[in-house]
């Protein structure tokens, strides 16, 4: 049997023996929007929990629109033009409108990458488009301190705007439960001090800091506290299917509109599975998410509920841009040299995480659960040594070796990777 995994800018075909018992786990088909552009315009007129954008824009003099960085395939070409035209039609001057790439602590998106990200030349020609830099102290404003002790500093351009709009993609997120909405603001345009506080082990090791969980998730609760501190914001939320076609768009008050988008996405992005498997084959969702090994960790965490204890998790990820940041490489080096237990002990008492070491911390979860195997064509030999997982040159061979070792022909296949979260629900 041939299966296809999302890989790079296309798919990776894998031929597996017919005698294997394959369970391919995929989303139910989403009801797609017939006319996304018109749906976006309608959402601005009929928002969730606030006045229409045109009414609020008429009272505003400065707007800041946040967009996600290149790691998320948000349909910006559909979202941004009607947003900006509504602001201009309401009397706002172009120079008073900023589109800000919510990079968090990721690298900036510039040049042709920025052109592709914005996906509309008119937007780039009409308004200011800039990147957030989390370590530039002067770019941030002190907002206050949360009840959990997080010092909150956010990008000045966002805080000083009287109309603040976050745009994003709502999908499962292995720390915050769901991406989009409040997450585009924090950590999206937060200062490094803020980001490294609520990405410390104090938050990350909480059992509810995981995929598709909002209630009791300390990271989500911290984000909600920050929304209250800044007096709220507006958001555009999108949901796409496995072929990246738009199934859902809304606009409104940041918390309420995000909750509505999560309610829609959850019907499709979480899939009940009655059994656990000794062999699980998955992807890292393809480009742009599988551009680095850093993001590949999401593909390792997504299927853990259906991986049998001690099972084999086989992940295909292109890693076309390599390992990730130098900070991440340092964290991975500490993991490989000192071992998982020592790494966790080292970070557990920190009030602030080192940049990007939280992704290494998340990798501890699949490493505790079983054995991780990585197929990639994008990592240099020195970077392969820093992954901390087993490398494979053949997905099919790794599947065959796993099923033989466990004496179990059952294989779960998740072509879409972390955009879908299988949830273990034993049959009655």
Which properties best describe this structure?
single chain, 428 residues, alpha/beta, 6-stranded parallel beta sheet, 6-stranded mixed beta sheet, 25% strand, globular
Task: Please provide a written account of the structure.
The protein contains 17 helices and 20 strands. It has helices at about 35-45, 55-60, 75-90, 110-120, 120-125, 155-160, 180-185, 190-200, 200-205, 220-230, 255-270, 295-300, 325-340, 340-350, 355-370, 380-385, 395-405, and strands at about 1-5, 10-15, 20-25, 65-70, 95-100, 130, 140-145, 150-155, 165-170, 170-175, 175-180, 235-240, 245-255, 270-275, 275-285, 305-315, 370-375, 390, 410-415, 420-425. The strands form six sheets. Strands 3-19-15-16-17-18 form a six-stranded parallel sheet, with helices on both faces. A six-stranded mixed sheet has the order 6-5-4-9-12-13, with helices on both faces. Helix 12 links the parallel strand 15 (about 275-285) and strand 16. Helix 1 (about 35-45) packs across helix 3, helix 12 packs parallel to helix 15 and helix 13 packs across helix 14. The two termini are about 30 Å apart.
Multimerization state: single chain
From the alpha carbons, calculate the radius of gyration and give it in angstroms. Answer: 21 Å
Averaged pLDDT: 97
- End-to-end C-alpha gap: 30 Å
Main sheet properties: 6 strands, parallel
**Form type:** globular
Strand content: 25-35%
| Total number of strands | 20
Instruction: Determine the fraction of residues in helical runs and give it as a percent range.
Output: 25-40%
Helix-and-strand structural type: alpha/beta
Record the strand order, biggest sheet.
Answer: 3-19-15-16-17-18
Give unreliable regions as ranges: none
Total helices: the number is 17
């Amino acid at each position: 049997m041939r299966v296809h995994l999302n890989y790079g800018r296309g798919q990776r075909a894998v031929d597996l023996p017919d005698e294997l018992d394959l369970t391919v786990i995929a989303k139910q088909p989403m009801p797609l929007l017939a006319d996304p552009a018109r749906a976006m315009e309608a959402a601005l007129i009929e928002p969730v929990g606030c006045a229409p954008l045109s009414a609020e824009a008429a009272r505003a003099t400065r707007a800041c629109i946040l967009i996600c960085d290149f790691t998320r395939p948000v349909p910006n070409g559909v979202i941004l033009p009607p947003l900006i035209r509504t602001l201009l039609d309401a009397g706002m001057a172009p120079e008073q409108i900023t589109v800000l790439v919510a990079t968090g602590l990721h690298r900036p998106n510039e040049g042709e990458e920025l052109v592709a990200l914005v996906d509309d030349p008119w937007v780039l020609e009409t308004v200011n488009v800039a990147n957030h830099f989390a370590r530039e102290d002067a770019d941030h404003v002190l907002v206050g301190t949360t009840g959990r002790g997080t010092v909150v500093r956010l990008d000045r351009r966002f805080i000083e705007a009287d109309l603040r709009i976050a745009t994003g993609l709502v999908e499962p997120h292995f720390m915050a439960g769901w991406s989009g909405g409040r997450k585009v603001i924090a950590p999206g345009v937060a200062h490094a001090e803020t980001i490294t506080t609520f990405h410390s082990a104090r938050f990350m090791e909480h059992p509810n800091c995981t995929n598709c969980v909002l209630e009791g998730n300390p990271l989500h609760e911290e984000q909600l506290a920050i929304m209250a501190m800044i007096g709220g914001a507006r958001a555009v939320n999108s949901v796409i299917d496995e072929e990246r076609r738009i199934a859902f768009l809304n606009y409104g008050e940041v918390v309420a509109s995000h909750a509505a988008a999560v309610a829609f996405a959850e019907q499709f992005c979480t899939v009940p599975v009655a059994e656990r498997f000794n062999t699980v084959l998955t992807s890292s969702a393809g480009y742009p998410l599988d551009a680095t090994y850093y993001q590949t960790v999401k593909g390792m965490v997504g299927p853990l509920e259906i991986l049998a204890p001690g099972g084999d998790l086989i992940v295909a990820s292109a890693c076309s841009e390599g390992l990730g940041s130098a900070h991440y490489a340092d964290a991975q080096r500490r993991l490989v040299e000192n071992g998982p237990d020592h790494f966790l002990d080292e970070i557990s008492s920190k009030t602030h995480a080192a940049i990007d070491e939280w992704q290494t911390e998340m990798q501890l979860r699949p490493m505790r659960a079983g054995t991780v195997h990585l197929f990639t064509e994008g990592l240099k030999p020195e970077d392969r040594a820093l992954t901390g997982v087993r490398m494979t040159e053949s997905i099919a061979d790794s599947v065959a070796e796993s099923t033989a070792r466990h004496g179990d022909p059952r294989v779960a296949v998740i072509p879409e990777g972390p955009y879908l979260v299988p949830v273990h629900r034993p049959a009655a």
